[in-house]
From TrEMBL:
<feature type="DNA-binding region" description="H-T-H motif">
    <location>
        <begin position="35"/>
        <end position="54"/>
    </location>
</feature>
<feature type="domain" description="HTH tetR-type">
    <location>
        <begin position="12"/>
        <end position="72"/>
    </location>
</feature>
<dbReference type="Pfam" id="PF14278">
    <property type="entry name" value="TetR_C_8"/>
</dbReference>
<dbReference type="Pfam" id="PF00440">
    <property type="entry name" value="TetR_N"/>
</dbReference>
<dbReference type="GO" id="GO:0003677">
    <property type="term" value="F:DNA binding"/>
</dbReference>
<dbReference type="InterPro" id="IPR001647">
    <property type="entry name" value="HTH_TetR"/>
</dbReference>
<dbReference type="InterPro" id="IPR039532">
    <property type="entry name" value="TetR_C_Firmicutes"/>
</dbReference>
<dbReference type="InterPro" id="IPR009057">
    <property type="entry name" value="Homeodomain-like_sf"/>
</dbReference>
<dbReference type="InterPro" id="IPR050624">
    <property type="entry name" value="HTH-type_Tx_Regulator"/>
</dbReference>
<dbReference type="InterPro" id="IPR023772">
    <property type="entry name" value="DNA-bd_HTH_TetR-type_CS"/>
</dbReference>
<keyword id="KW-0238">DNA-binding</keyword>
<protein>
    <submittedName>
        <fullName>DNA-binding transcriptional regulator, AcrR family</fullName>
    </submittedName>
</protein>
Length: 204
């Protein structure tokens, strides 16, 4: 029987310190102005330690982004909210609330992300993730308008834009809406309109 590789807590702590330092600097001075030395100084490590864990700052940003997407993947499990062609709205609302909670935990990072050129990559990756996770649902849909079939990738792009824009507003405004209330508002806006027009049966 193969033994599981033991996780080195020191490595995890170091990567966490580097990531947190990078996010702080990103918010203060912008991506282009950050140097590896800046990150090392803020994380209280040397440059050699940085390069043990990351190739460069692009690799660091990519890994942080991938970690965020992985967190969403666990939350956005389609089996939780979907049965056949039905979407269970209350469960969907709870799932979206969890996404907002996850974003709130890393608020500074997502503020920076949605204010930078990286927002396009965020939209692209979220759309790709939704398409893969919910492929079996979308394959059942056929949305037409005046005998013209609406492309599924357009629908996904549209819904992704709504979500990312909502997150951006929530992070950048002075709103004190808690994650649960944001999820409720989002469902209120799209539940009976956008989802039903896609041919999905919405149940509460």
């Amino acid at each position: 029987m193969l033994k599981k590789k033991k996780v080195d807590l020191r490595v995890l702590r170091t990567k966490k310190m580097i990531s947190e330092a990078f996010v702080e600097l990103f918010g203060e001075k912008g991506y282009d102005q950050i140097t590896i030395q800046d990150i090392a100084d803020r994380a209280m490590i040397n440059r050699a330690t940085f390069y043990l864990h990351f190739k460069d700052k692009n690799d660091l940003l990519d890994q942080i982004f991938e970690f965020a997407l992985a967190s969403f993947s666990k939350i956005l499990d389609p089996s939780i909210i979907q049965k056949g062609n039905q979407l269970q709205i209350k469960k969907l609302e709870a799932v979206i609330a969890e996404v907002f909670i996850e974003i709130k935990k890393n608020k500074t990072f997502y503020q920076v992300l949605t204010e930078s050129n990286y927002i396009n990559k965020m939209k692209e990756q979220v759309a790709k993730h939704i398409q893969v996770q919910y492929q079996h649902i979308f394959s059942q849909l056929k949305v037409t308008e005046n005998d013209f079939e609406v492309p599924i990738d357009f629908i996904i792009e549209y819904m992704t834009a709504i979500f990312v824009s909502t997150v951006h507003w929530w992070l950048m405004s002075d709103s004190n809406y808690p994650p649960e209330q944001m999820a409720h508002l989002l469902i209120k806006l799209v539940g009976n309109g956008h989802l039903t027009v896609l041919g999905l049966e919405v149940i509460y």
